Amino acid sequence: MNAVRTQEKRRQRAPSKRSLETRTRVLDAAEKLFAEHGFDGASLRDMAKLAGVHLAQVNFHGGAKEELFFTVVARRAGELSQLRLETLEDLKARGRPTVRNILEAFIHPYLDRAAHGGPQWLAYARLIAHVSTDIRWRHISEACFDPAATAFAGEIAVLYPGSDHRKIAAALVFSVSAMLSLTTARWRIDALAGSQSDDISMEDCLLDYCEAGIRAALS
Amino acid sequence: MNAVRTQEKRRQRAPSKRSLETRTRVLDAAEKLFAEHGFDGASLRDMAKLAGVHLAQVNFHGGAKEELFFTVVARRAGELSQLRLETLEDLKARGRPTVRNILEAFIHPYLDRAAHGGPQWLAYARLIAHVSTDIRWRHISEACFDPAATAFAGEIAVLYPGSDHRKIAAALVFSVSAMLSLTTARWRIDALAGSQSDDISMEDCLLDYCEAGIRAALS
DNA sequence: TATTTATTTGAACGATCGTTAAAAATAGTG
DNA sequence: CACTATTTTTAACGATCGTTCAAATAAATA
Q: How far apart are CA B116 and CA B113, in angstroms?
């Protein structure tokens, strides 16, 4: 799987500016189509068309399809995790954070970028949902998302010292699932409500829901 | 889309017993592979192989791929919805149900069948998660799951008369997402916890979580 | 500028996909 | 049994898929 890295050719020159631009166009197109159609439903040819490059360029810049998928997921994972963890560290520096604080530090960066980060971040938010619900991408979750998730689980454990670690993990995954549902199942909320919902009140509603859920599950 | 029904040939004889058996084998195989690999990742040839029939039989008994998918989802949806709604009616006959009662009536039939209903129900549980998180299958959700979901949302509304319908819908979708995560992301819970979790305590944990979440979101 | 490396282009490979059509076999009816 | 409808078998169609390779071009270095 990671034999890729061992086979990787040592490059003697830095990639040119044009090369980096086409690479970005390829990854952006892949991000959109992977997010919209899933791994199997997205074709490399459609990515090339969307990116405005030739088919072989997709392979040149992204490698095989699974490599490309990993690259696209990993590309923004660092920024997201870093923002989450920095917010968490800031909270801890100000004193013992509440469950609400911790949850907000985890959820807000995701929802904020999904809502105001532009079309690529919106696609990326959808992409995370694919990775989080398919055991096939377990290794990607472990590499990209588990480190931050573990830190947040640990912080919750501080507030509930006697709690079963399995319950903490479950409550966190429940919260992540509810959060992801705002990007994967907003259409379903609107259908059941009979009207459209706005982002801001939904985030508050989600935080109220998850905070109380975690407290109840761990008490 | 539903032109299928208008083109349907009027049959003059009831299907033979053997025909019904192969049909069941085809649908069971489709259920497993759709559940495991998603719509695009599952191939009709693999279904034929798993069912032990020839490729053309899959088309004969299931129609085109999208018809087959709908047929498989719809096959068990009635039983599940009926069980949920009957449990709900029983509760109402005994007096005003609590949020906990309502939630349990919705969640327990799903988790119980996923855990003790055999491999086909386990696959079906996974299949529901695919349908619920992909807007592509919105029409299937509307046909198969929204009726029961609407009834449950209405029952929650009785307990919180002043609540915004959008909040009720959101809280219900959050709960459904958390419920589905027990079949799609159990591996993630176990990874974060560092140990395996058992079904029974997870259901209790989920109910504690969702009950408190709904109460908090609607108060 | 000459030479080397990086990138793009163009074309094709083999494999697998969903779908269809026409025989062959089976089951049900008179 | 003869006849009809249903089901199974067999084979193939056209399309699309991911991947690869060699030639052509662009960029960077000496």
A: 5
| Strand nucleotide closest to residue B13 (CA to C1') | D5
Q: Does the CB of A140 have a partner CB in chain B at under 8 Å?
A: no
Distance CA B92, CA B81 (A): 16
Q: pLDDT digits over A139-163, tens only? A: 999 999 999 999 999 999 999 999 9
Q: Is A14 on the interface with B (CB under 8 A)?
A: no
On chain B, the residues whose CB falls within 8 A of the CB of A168 are 192-193
CB A202 within 8 A of CB A182: yes
**Is the Cβ pair B166, A215 closer than 8 Å?**
no
A14-56 confidence digits (pLDDT tens): 787 888 899 999 999 999 999 999 999 999 999 999 999 999 9
Quick check: B192 and A146 CB within 8 A?
yes
How far from the centroid of its chain's Cα atoms is residue A13's Cα?
A: 32
Q: Tokens 């994967």: give the residue.
A: A184
User: Does the global pTM surpass 0.85?
Assistant: yes
* Dihedral sign from CA coordinates of B153, B158, B164, B165: positive
3-state helix, strand, coil in chain B (%, to 5): 80, 0, 20
* Alpha carbon distance A31, A25 (integer Å): 10
Instruction: Give the count of alpha carbons within 13 A of B2, CB side only.
Output: 3
Q: Smallest CA–CA separation between A67 and chain B, in Å?
A: 18
Is residue A44's beta carbon less than 7 angstroms from any atom in nucleic acid strand D? Answer: yes
